[in-house]
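BUG: 3D viewer hangs when loading the predicted structure for this chain

Environment: internal workstation, default settings.
Expected: structure renders.
Actual: progress bar stalls at 90%.

Input used:
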Amino acid sequence: MGSSKTAAVKMAAKGARRGGAVTMGAQSALTLYDAFDHLATMVAVVETDGVCVFANAVFEEVLGLSRRSVMRESIYDWFVDPTLLKDIVTAVANNEFATSRLQAELKRNLHVLTGDPLPVQVIVTRMDLTAHVLIELVEIEQQAKQEREERALDQAQANKELIRNLAHEIKNPLGGIRGAAQLLQMELESKSLTEYTQVIIHEADRLQLLVDRLLAPHRRPHLVGDVNIHEVCERVRSLILAEFPKGLKVWRDYDTSLPEFRGDREQLIQAVLNIAHNAAQALSDRVAAGDAVLTLRTRVMRRVTINRHLHRLALLLHIEDNGPGIPEAIRDRIFYPLVSGREGGSGLGLTLAQTFVQQHQGTIECESEPGRTVFKILIPLP
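Structure tokens produced before the viewer hung:
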């Protein structure tokens, strides 16, 4: 993102030099700073007194206003408390220093001041060869989200290496143990003793099955085709209701405007099913009481950054339940292999779900508190 911003700044400065003008009209500013529309962050260019001469497309979306409605307006009207920002813009404009950072709260809408302000990190930079100042705003939550995505990717890669190494270390001796138990069973005449060899064989088979399940997503080929996310959700809904026919309601809240996309339908069904099935099992007390609710919700997101890449459109799928929530002790580790909050659980369902979603260049996150747990799947759309 830094290199893109630098290139855009240089392009804008170069254009200003060619134009030979320091003060520009609205139309010329729009043309001059077009490169900023390709950034994933909010960018504005202001004069030394804070008057806006350009705001990029992301800024429009966040403010909820058209670009022309904010042109020639004071940038300080956009902030809850602009005092520090005013001082910094003045200092940068006077070349007391080239750039500076601060945290501030951005108003959601200049004319309809409703809703909570948006916490942002503000980066103020002096633009060479012009009398303008570049202001970039990064949502603090977005920055934290990107950091979580990077940690999740690193953890998924570490999990993959761990699983491969673990499988290699377990499979060979496990086969030897099972084979030795079978040979021993053939030599034993006492039925009471053969029961022990049967235990060895059974447990060896169980461990082999566990290893195969761990390796399954990395072995299976990625079968790509056209996917309708609502067909995926309906398949999962029918499977869940077949297993929990009483006491559980599965609500649908679909955005039917969502387009089809290229992906592996069976992998996505398995990912959503793993999450929904875990939720249904966690709702056992509410199922017994008859007030368990599982919600499948789809939405379209615009200009979304996923795994450091900006996408024009993305699919957002919420899988929400009204259960007791994920135990706080494991909340940060639920996607790790073999971590389960349920007695008798394998701890593989969410690990596999994360793997399948990441194979679609998407991300998966979870928010949980007593009475509400929601898994959010985000997948880029064409």
